[in-house]
Write a structure and sequence with these properties.
This protein is of the alpha/beta class. The chain is built from two helices and three strands. It has one domain: 3-Layer(aba) Sandwich (Rossmann fold), CATH 3.40.50. The radius of gyration is 13 Å and the shape is globular.
Length: about 90
Amino acid sequence: MAVPAAVGSTVATRMLYSSRSFEEVIYRDELDHLVSNTTHLEVVYTLTRVQPPGWKGYHRRIDTEAQARGRTFLDMRGVRVLQISAGA
């Protein structure tokens, strides 16, 4: 899996990742490893059906509002925003 921020780019990247549950996040271990080894990548998870106890993250699909927040973040910080949806 090639994520631009993880392969030598200096462009900051924020990935909005939607999944039904934390257990269903594809490449979660790999993404966590990439995040822990770079300052240019941030992964924001949104869990649409099941959230673990104490979950403080998003709990909805990547909809118009979430996309608008991503664009606002992009405009404010010059950060590339990737959107990933897994599951139905």
